Amino acid sequence: MKLNNLLLIAMQNIKIHYINSFFGFLWLPLSFLILIIIKTYLFSDILNLKVGRYIPHLVTGLLFWTFLSNSITKNLNIFFNNNMILNLNIKPIEFFKISYLESIILITLNSLILFLFFIFSKIEINFIYLIIAVFILSLFVYELNKVMSVLFLILRDVVFLISSSLILIFFLTPIIWEPSMLSEQNLFYLQFNPFYHLVEVFRSIIYGNFSWNIHLKIIITIYFALKLINFFLTDKIVSRINLYS
Amino acid sequence: MILKTNNLNLTLNRKLILNSINLSIENGDRIGITGKNGSGKTVLLRTLAGIYPVQKDMLHTQIKFFFLSTPATATSPRLKSRDNVKRILMFHNQNTYKEELFLNLCDQFEFNNYIDYEFIKLSQGYRLRLQIIAFLLMDFQNLLIDEFFGFGDDIVQDKFQEILKDKYRTVDSLVVASHNQKIIKTVCNRIIKLDQGRIIEDYRI
Question: Which pTM was predicted?
Fold first, then answer.
């Protein structure tokens, strides 16, 4: 299926979601703006953190998290409840791509909000670094979501675990808190959370502090492992999904 | 030869649905596939379309068939008719929407008053008309149709057949699965009858 058709369908799906509402699809960036405004002032007051340092940390974390959780949640039933798969002659993977493009549209709009928010808050930000960070994050999340979408089809129980798992992952990953708040022992356990390394790489690119560090090495390793799983296993399963629908 | 199957077998949910299907489709074939419910018509069409993957030595084809089943699955309940027609076309990978032709077809199928209706508010009859309009906007060379003609009142059926006669002349090959004998006799030059996943009759008319 042509990319422009996939993109048009993704845009139409978003439009449908907000149909008959006054702001329409603008609720996507508006929701994010409301989220960062509330969380910025709420958590900086509760956690009593230096606002100048905490706000970029929080807002970049929220951008990361809204994209990750949105794309995972969208894929929960992408192959299972999809009656279009057998009635339309489109490869099953195309439905995954449409769903993923919807998440890309979301993060694109949210990135613009983040950029404007930083400008308004007089926080230094380089727009090019932001684009690069979002691009690298989207590559990783694409491969991750591909593996998870097949997992959701084969192991249905995982679908029902995911909503509570996402909440847990949110609190175990330094989205709204900083690693420096942890004790040494907890910091050691944090190393086993792959999303911690991913968000650190994401933030370091946005801040322009990008370096060949342990976070990047782990993320690259996981990325290529996911790529291999997708190449040898996932793509083959997805191409034969109609046999199991 | 456009397509050839070689002892095509297909198992779904551990049940053999297609059993030793040997079928060839030539340029100019207008094939009607008949058989009672559960004989394997839909599965056969989906297999020929590539929706159900099979072993490479069982199915040889140089072309991609255009598969039409229930376009309504691509619609969205809250979209208006024009947007739903465009959506159906997008999901069938067709960039063939033309406003003039769309309005012309709406006129022919007495659909003008329903262009701004949401799909959810249309009756079953008008939902079918919307699907027919979308279908008639499509462009294809080799077509597989699954039970698409079975519904609608006589006026819709007659109008549909009238427009279809011209459209069918331009396709290279056509395979239709239907219980509608009128459509089969009008459109097809070859009949294949299925029973329990096997071809029991294959003759030209």
Answer: 0.87
